Batch of 2 targets.
Target 1
Amino acid sequence: MSDKLDANENIINETNPFENHIRLTSKYELNNAVQPLLTDLYQISMAYAYWKNQKNDNAVFDLFFRKNPFQGEYTVFAGLEDCLKYIQNFKFSTSDIDYLRTAMPQYVEDEFFVYLENMNLNDIQIYALREGSLVFPRIPIMRIEGPLPIVQLLETTLLVLVNYASLVTTNASRFRLAAGEFKNLLEFGLRRAQGPDGGLGASKYCYIGGFDGTSNVLAGKLYSIPIRGTHAHSFVSSYNDLSDLHDRTLKSVVSDEMFDLANLSMDYLTQLEKFEFNFSLNEANRGELAAFIGYAIAFPSDFLALVDTYNVLKSGVPNFCAVALALHKVGYRAKGIRLDSGDLAYLSNKVRDFFKKVAKVFQLDFFESLTIVASNDINEDILHSLNMQGHSIDSFGIGTHLVTCQKQPALGCVFKLVEVNGRPCVKLSEDVQKATFPGKKNAYRLYDKEGIPLVDLLTRSDEDEPKVGEAFLCRHPFIETKRAYLSPSKVENLLVPVWINGKLVQENMDSIDGIRERVRKQLNRLRNDHKRMLNPTPYKITVSRTLYDFIHNLWLDYTPIGELK
Amino acid sequence: MSDKLDANENIINETNPFENHIRLTSKYELNNAVQPLLTDLYQISMAYAYWKNQKNDNAVFDLFFRKNPFQGEYTVFAGLEDCLKYIQNFKFSTSDIDYLRTAMPQYVEDEFFVYLENMNLNDIQIYALREGSLVFPRIPIMRIEGPLPIVQLLETTLLVLVNYASLVTTNASRFRLAAGEFKNLLEFGLRRAQGPDGGLGASKYCYIGGFDGTSNVLAGKLYSIPIRGTHAHSFVSSYNDLSDLHDRTLKSVVSDEMFDLANLSMDYLTQLEKFEFNFSLNEANRGELAAFIGYAIAFPSDFLALVDTYNVLKSGVPNFCAVALALHKVGYRAKGIRLDSGDLAYLSNKVRDFFKKVAKVFQLDFFESLTIVASNDINEDILHSLNMQGHSIDSFGIGTHLVTCQKQPALGCVFKLVEVNGRPCVKLSEDVQKATFPGKKNAYRLYDKEGIPLVDLLTRSDEDEPKVGEAFLCRHPFIETKRAYLSPSKVENLLVPVWINGKLVQENMDSIDGIRERVRKQLNRLRNDHKRMLNPTPYKITVSRTLYDFIHNLWLDYTPIGELK
């Protein structure tokens, strides 16, 4: 993979005049929707109010969420590369400025638009978790520092780039946990995604979250992800009978002999009927047989047939086996079948029995282990249910529920101001759980001697960091009686620099496969009780003694003594 | 609006050499992700198998869904313009072909790629519902006819363009029904959307579905949709006290007199405290007051303040009223406030009482009807609940649940082959409800004399169409005993030509505002029992006697006589 990336980088170097370029995972540029105007109007209104009041303070914002998605207890952070592409290309175009002049009130001063047009991100500093890291509620995923009006302008775009990427990566990782390490997982969701880009993002981030490939060809082209697919029901129903085959011959793998695949397949179908496979020649649809033969002639080394257009056990599977036996005669091995309806546990077991019987009758061992793909509205719960029932599926094609994150279609990342010119900023609101942790902070992950994460720890940015082998008091952020001394065997500083003084920090960027591997490793190391399906144990988020006192004193200072409502 | 569109068209004409161009709603081109490779790999695999077998049959496909979303009984069709832009620009690029050569098996014949590279859509005929029409299960939304391999290649992209557009438009229309005709509805969902394009699409289609505007600036630029917004909590918390104001003055509307808005506001705050508005000067946060003054100086004619950063009734509203009174002194009228947390019914009523008291005490009637905007995780159910409780909200800012369609994040449109070379195609599958209606069909909507839709009717394409004033036997498609003679006062042929022989049918294209108006009118005409929230009555889909017999005979022909399982 690293070779491939390097190749792409070279291509970019040739066409990209910027000295400082990101490790793009692709040589093809997308998405042109990601630009400074992809934001909420109020960001620009606020920029004007700040500008008008000459309020160019140094501000620190935290990007974080308050609750893990899917009733789970972990989240995978993804979208960093997309954020940094946006940061790198941040520039209001002339047509943007023209549009804003018409869209904002007429009394907005003209110099403001000059200010916008000249805006750049050279004074912005961004620290972030490495992409693909596990992240937990209230830990800053990104910490962004710089002139208040400018950092404020980044909010919406960063949120839209992080929210869905992290949500769908997390979702994919949960499907992977449910399916187990050895099943093949394919993302088939493009047609049901929330728009073209939702589909593209899903394909990329499901791969990062642990899927093996996608049906989405453009995602394959853009991100070098494996693409997979066979044929649809329409392919089968477009054939009426064997006379629809214009060319029925296939050349032997080992000699120049030409075989009539249609005749061979009909012979095997007749044999299968005689061996009591519980179907009759009459029941096996001849259009379906013709379609399978046509497909096998086109893809002799990759024959995988959709078998539920008419009837799986009476038609689809007998027809598939007839063609697979014929292919074998010519020197090719069929791949397997796909089920797209019905009771997947029951049918997959019945199909496996059928395959085993064919293996025995025809003395062809490979038939026993032909691939069975299933793809009918599968979600995480169905994967768990299939595991409990027992099934014979090797590979899952998963679409709608995966890409739209049906269980929870949005992640609630927010972007909160925590410090202005060194002064902590507080937001309380009417809902206590919406209160923010003020002040510029550092974030650490403390590990035990087996390399298992113990807790995450937030400190004030000017505190000493926790040290390996030294006891550090970690406090629950809300409950004063919950606290413990921890002596970590390893301390990880979670927030690493990614954009400093207008330059990308290359060494903290990763390839798509590097990110995918980080997800896999970190999930492996996370304790099982944090990952289980039902009522998982929350992973502990703690604060230092200093930060605890700082936060609670500020909250008290800012709260009017009122009613107990 | 039509003027604006014409202006845009002229701009396109200058740069677009195609004689036949679509009524683009924007002069800015998006989305570059929509291209022939935005498809599932199996479409290209099938194209190869068809090509290899010289199977260039004339095929008819129906695009339809089986179930209305959101437990409702109607769907709004949207996305047609996006589909036709894709159709118009359909062309495999050289880099697409290069990629496919590497991604497909090596034995795929080279001439196939030449075939793909030369492919065009001149032989494709597309009939569709007018965009913004109501549509019901199993009615073909689009009927596409042409060479089998080519039409098959369009499937995934058309589905992704129709599915989310129709889903989110339908969702927005349901929010509109819940909020009532006279509330102001604003879409604020960008940051939680499923990717940048999900956000853009949501903004466009929520407007079409009945929203009044969006916060999404790029959507405003691209689609000429009204954009709206004020400021965030961070704006408030970035101010510490009145000393953060660099310029406190505002010029009078009527004279050259300069006013110190900070002093004026403090004066009014002191007066408010004295008039027993149940807060103390001490409780009203001075940083919040400074922020409001700063914002009012920047936007004196558009002052709308977010009042829940610290405490709505003790700080936010008193501070807002102080600044609004000061603005009035200088000659400006404030707009109102926004609530983003807490019990919205309770708080909005309390705020309204506050405003009414100010109106009375200061003899300023307009204060009574200042705008109250609410925007905290609002969904359709919450709108209904607020209506039942009673509230004083004028305007709703709605994000997450609207744009991600939390109640059901995907619409299940499918694309099914129904006819090849005049022969009907059947797909049965293991699930009966997945069976398709074979054959090329026409679709009609029959109206009563008040212009209310009675039923939708499917016929075979070669049947006579139902006529005004003549009784026509309409049958339930599945239940043989359900049938009725209907004598319509109006008959609408639902499927109109939109792409014929490589040309767009301009007269069946609509402006974005035309589509929006169609949604509004058609929903108004639909009977209330089809629209109600709880257990709505299904709108009747019927088939002609001829089509009924045709379908049922085919289903029987294709079903093996098996077990009753």
Target 2
Amino acid sequence: MPQSAVAPTYRVGVLGASGYSGRELCALVLGHPNLTLAFATANSQRGTTLRVRAGGRVHDVPMVAPEEADLAGVDLVFAALPHGASAEWIGKVIAAGARVVDLSSDLRPGHGGVTHALPAGVPADAPYGMPELFRADMANARVVANPGCYATSILVALAPLAKSGLIAPGATVNISSASGVSGAGASPKLELLFAEITEDFRAYGVGNAHRHLYEMRATLARLGADCDLLFTPHLLPVDRGILSTISVPLSRPLSDALAPYREAYANEPFVELTTGLPALADVQHRNVVRIGAVIPTGLRQDTLLVFSAIDNLVKGAAGQAVQNANIMLGLDEGAGLQA
Amino acid sequence: MPQSAVAPTYRVGVLGASGYSGRELCALVLGHPNLTLAFATANSQRGTTLRVRAGGRVHDVPMVAPEEADLAGVDLVFAALPHGASAEWIGKVIAAGARVVDLSSDLRPGHGGVTHALPAGVPADAPYGMPELFRADMANARVVANPGCYATSILVALAPLAKSGLIAPGATVNISSASGVSGAGASPKLELLFAEITEDFRAYGVGNAHRHLYEMRATLARLGADCDLLFTPHLLPVDRGILSTISVPLSRPLSDALAPYREAYANEPFVELTTGLPALADVQHRNVVRIGAVIPTGLRQDTLLVFSAIDNLVKGAAGQAVQNANIMLGLDEGAGLQA
Amino acid sequence: MPQSAVAPTYRVGVLGASGYSGRELCALVLGHPNLTLAFATANSQRGTTLRVRAGGRVHDVPMVAPEEADLAGVDLVFAALPHGASAEWIGKVIAAGARVVDLSSDLRPGHGGVTHALPAGVPADAPYGMPELFRADMANARVVANPGCYATSILVALAPLAKSGLIAPGATVNISSASGVSGAGASPKLELLFAEITEDFRAYGVGNAHRHLYEMRATLARLGADCDLLFTPHLLPVDRGILSTISVPLSRPLSDALAPYREAYANEPFVELTTGLPALADVQHRNVVRIGAVIPTGLRQDTLLVFSAIDNLVKGAAGQAVQNANIMLGLDEGAGLQA
Amino acid sequence: MPQSAVAPTYRVGVLGASGYSGRELCALVLGHPNLTLAFATANSQRGTTLRVRAGGRVHDVPMVAPEEADLAGVDLVFAALPHGASAEWIGKVIAAGARVVDLSSDLRPGHGGVTHALPAGVPADAPYGMPELFRADMANARVVANPGCYATSILVALAPLAKSGLIAPGATVNISSASGVSGAGASPKLELLFAEITEDFRAYGVGNAHRHLYEMRATLARLGADCDLLFTPHLLPVDRGILSTISVPLSRPLSDALAPYREAYANEPFVELTTGLPALADVQHRNVVRIGAVIPTGLRQDTLLVFSAIDNLVKGAAGQAVQNANIMLGLDEGAGLQA
């Protein structure tokens, strides 16, 4: 991978480094050729160090309180704070002159269903950081809203169908997703203990109650689709990975299940198509969306069955955040993401 | 548990005891108050013993070749042989004068999509052994076709809707199921090794290619439903259990999601309803179908979202087989199934 | 299992029902033919119900605050409270006239290494409730100290050697144990989350720092052994089960590795010997210690290698507690433990 | 990572690419800056392709029969063939003029306990490829015997003690190791199926019966230690990783548990020391041995308790093989191993 002799280097910080997305961000930044980690904050673990594996080594990253972070001394901040708590800090970062990739739902399309009064300087219409769909929006952005993990797996799979009018108007797109437990965060909760999760499987947030539906509906509408979504997430006894199984009623027959994807993503380095079926093992620790599709037999309604697999912490969170930061900073979009 | 002083005892045999369903059958028979295990066959493991846990003890069950089994000396045979290999042995058992519960797909409605020439004496229309739907058919049956594991989890969930005309005519019922690995059998295959399954999740048999669709379609038609099924099974990194997530377009609005189930299954000891969401941990090692349901918001099409959990080796195979045998032999339907 | 027509029934309570041992106690009591569950306390979860599977059914057990428990209305209390917090409640139970099986380390030999001032009426020398070694001590006891899980797996394996002088005087007995995560309790801690445990394995409490060493050393001394223990516990990515691998320097050669066990445990229903190697899968959900042993080759020092497997929540906690309660109440020792 | 403008490139082949070590070798070679993969053989899977993840991409590597491999067209061959089958192929490779890193036990010290007549040209005393101990032996070697996975984890932990005379003469070093299932190979066997391994833990090959004992004993003798080994491997429900827990009777007291390791491995890039306890999660997918040590209390015999963690497929097999190949070919020893 030849790189220019004068590759620029930027200083970045991570707000909320003790969660699983925050840890992954630290690892990606530490292994990134053009980024250096200036600070990592974790309110409850201030004063401790976080063990992070990157570039073949184990790093001990000191955790500081967010108030101690030198916001003015960095070029960009990754904010991996809880939903609702993020906007305030984004305001401070912007005031300090740095850019932001925000991993909360606060600034995403639909704002996670919650209307917050945003601090001064925080845009209500931050670009939605899904490069494969909206790369151009991010060129000069000061703030980018990083998509949700489920939303990433689903929208990358639905967008080519939406844009080409293939989704039957008024129909229900049925989405059954299953996520590894790291998607539920690193807060200690009884129901996330090993003994509660191993050998089990269950749905949660059912009946269209999940926060990610807002950004999915808003984005599909923007892409021209007039459909309903029925989204049912499940909790898997695995660490990381999301598989979405998506049934799409079609407005017209399709003879080649993958054709819409070949066309839409021919030049996308972080979308993989397979003539087989994507599995979590194909995507773990990688910044890709891996897509397979089949046309089911025996149905009166023309239908496409799409499978989409991602690593929820990489393409579903930290990896996509770094991809977005690369775009915002004018770096190679894949820098730090090939390992 | 008071039992009559003159509780009858029947001698039974298991054909195909080395698979996971066969092992579970041996365990249930060994712990059954009215059954004794006369023989257990396993062609490739003849001469060895199978370790089976039942009634608080570990038993060593000798495996014999099927040719060595004394078919004439038993009252009933459980046939847990591979699909396609079962019919021949059923013929021999019937000729020997014993009854049969067959766990293969050979005699189920739709015959697993394969037309076999059946041996003399083997009925093409054996009752389908799902007691909650077709108990009366089994009273005097010499042969009962035990349902498939996925079919059990799905048909018990769909039957009350089908019978009351709630499924929208012509609509597609969307079924996403996930099964533990024991459902794939005990044949050594690379893709079932621990190192291949742990931390992974994937679909298989997609696009309406699974054998169980035949018995599901035939049964729904018999119950009066005119719908299409889109069935997508997935492979879970767990030992046992199936969760089916089923989206049903409705012909009319429903105000109480569980009402059809309360009515249909009020007196069924092996169907459990929950106002929450059923999980694999609720049903493992138990002979039940556990059902939850919600009415999703935000959809133009009236829809019911149903969740159905079973243990694939118990209510999905061996437990239901014992339940059927109890009915055929005039025993208490739950005998040997409460542990 | 024929039982007398006038089988007595006793009322019991569980203090500390929300932990894994407490839940298992509730399940065993609910399935016990001679016990009824009068109350179950859980300070932090008072007012909620605990879902417990027992006797083929799912029970919803109401949780009350310990202050609300009717201590005077029960015959026996199982105390599954944190180490250090138990003695106070034992005093109250005794004052109310009930018996106690205490699952904490407070009253065990060596008292877990901590000297507490015991409340009035609480004996400092409560019998150590390991029936296979000290059954006679419990006949008229008002309080029994239930052994630790590791201690159970190790002492049942070492006792026959200790009593027959087979352990080389002054030698170090090397014990490497591995436990399922339920042994670490149900308190939400980051390090016990599924994502932290899956695919990992590590030691903890090393260098002879574990609380169970006190009861092990005291008990071995009582049995006549003069040896040192080097005990290293490890944390397994499984729910339940302990396997202890124990290397014992011998005072004299042994020709038959299992001989000491055959002699010592010929009439013990809850000790199983195997000429193979015991595994967690053999003992999960069962009230047994399963023991295997081999004489290693190539060593100058005569040595016996012993393997001991238990379910940490059953024979290692709740099951042994019920076994002890059965003895204290004059019931069949195995009542409620055969399922 | 600056690299010389004229970094050499070598062509290599993999014999036995379908096993877990073989797959890992293909992945490491594909991601190696100085190696290209000329062929990969797999007798039973000839004509198929192997999916390998390397360098952020998924590669489809064609499998050929070993007879089709162009042995004369490569500089070095990695032989990952079954024990006993390797020597014949090594002879052919040497005759064709290429070098060999052999991952079988056939050429290791002690030869895995089996005396084979070696083909012409195959040295009976190939250097033992553990660079941290015997780097100098490999400089001009045509054949290197890659160590066993258990042997790597144990010998790197024992060597500093052996060389400094710290192991008490005549004493028994007690080793309890636990390995992920990938160490048992990719041959489909019933006992390696997911449903057999999950939630279980057991010992195997006990009583000093494991093949790796030969190379461990021979190497310790070479390093000057006069001790016995008692080695007990266990099978973990994880994919990859070995943790060895080693109790070493000392010839003299030690005040700093890690001192021998700090001295011996100060300049070794692939040995990590920790003042905590090493865990599998620290080493998976990395070419390191991670070591922790404590001095246990309460023992009459001075003792050191050492913990050693490796990834059995990396430092325990394919990674160490690449490290050895780098040495043999004059490359940077860590080339291709930092990812």
